[in-house]
Design a protein that fits this description.
Mean pLDDT: 83
Number of strands: 0
Number of domains: 1
Order of helices and strands: HHHHHHHHHHH
Radius of gyration: 26 Å
Number of helices: 11
Helix content: 55-70%
Largest sheet: none
Shape: elongated
Structural class: mainly alpha
Length: 284
């Protein structure tokens, strides 16, 4: 029995050498770090839409509560209570969103995310800035939804389109300033439960203010406190812009003066709490 051998031809395939992967020239700069951290936080919000749903539902619930339950019992002079309420509620809503930011920062610390960022050769200040920027985006989206709900329940601004846009922008800027305070709270608390409790200490500012009731309806000693705190100052400016008339907002001075004072408070909050938050983050 014969065996037939079939010749086989092996063709060598030339492969190009893999391109060398060059390491980065150095660590990313502060801007790139801030944007990367912000992008990470935004993706987290997108992947957990219940955060947005809960935040929006809570805001709508409280706005409807003040509008229809307490509105008939509050005397606001010559303007409808809904027109008095909505500008103030927009301002105070940033405190609700800020408390959620404090909880998120504390959660990152509790889960070790903060420690991993600290171990990287990147700007630590940029990490905090990136987180605040992401929270600011969420806060601004919440303001849009809250403003839409306010219009749905009867709020009608009388200011020009430019004045209304300026009012909204002032709310957003004040929210950015408040987020630095809540970031500091989250970094200081270290865990979610403590962050929630510490955030509640800020909420009296929203009630001892002109946001929900006129200041002159409060006891004399309390009026002095309400008139000289940032929530009242920003609320008066936003209300004056939205209504197009400082007198309707209960102001004795001009809208420009009120806005200037509100911007000064906003800048002051950033100047105080931003360095404190960065310093707390740098400390293990």
């Amino acid at each position: 029995m014969s065996t037939t051998t079939v010749p086989t031809t092996v063709t060598a395939v030339a492969t190009a050498p893999a391109a060398a992967i060059e390491p980065p020239a150095g660590p990313p700069g502060p801007v790139a770090t801030a944007l990367t951290v912000a992008g990470r936080s935004v993706r987290r919000f997108v992947r957990t839409p219940q955060l947005l749903v809960v935040s929006t539902t809570t805001g709508a619930m409280f706005l409807l509560l003040f509008r229809y339950v307490f509105g008939g019992a509050v005397e606001t002079g010559g303007i409808a209570y809904v027109d008095f309420l909505v500008p103030g509620y927009l301002v105070t809503s940033v405190l609700f969103t800020g408390s959620e930011a404090a909880t998120g920062v504390a959660e990152d610390m509790e889960q070790g995310v903060t420690d991993r960022f600290r171990s990287l050769p990147v700007s630590r200040a940029a990490v905090v800035v990136g987180r605040v920027l992401a929270e600011w985006l969420l806060l601004t989206l919440g303001l849009v939804v809250t403003a839409a709900i306010g219009v749905a329940v009867g709020f009608r601004p009388d200011g020009t389109a430019l004045e209304v846009a300026a009012a909204f922008g002032l709310c957003s800027l004040f929210g950015f300033a408040a987020l630095w305070l809540f970031a500091l709270i989250g970094l200081t608390a270290g865990n979610v439960q403590a962050a929630q409790g510490m955030s509640l200490m800020v909420f009296p500012l929203s009630f001892v203010s002109s946001a929900y009731v006129p200041v002159d309806s409060m006891p004399g000693w309390l009026q002095a406190v309400a008139e000289h705190q940032p929530v009242t100052v920003v609320t008066d400016a936003v209300r004056s812009l939205a209504l197009g008339d400082p007198a309707a907002a209960g102001l004795d001075g001009s809208t420009a003066g009120s806005v200037g004072l509100a911007l000064a408070w906003t800048a002051g909050l950033v100047a105080v709490f931003a360095p404190l938050a960065v310093q707390r983050y740098r400390r293990p």
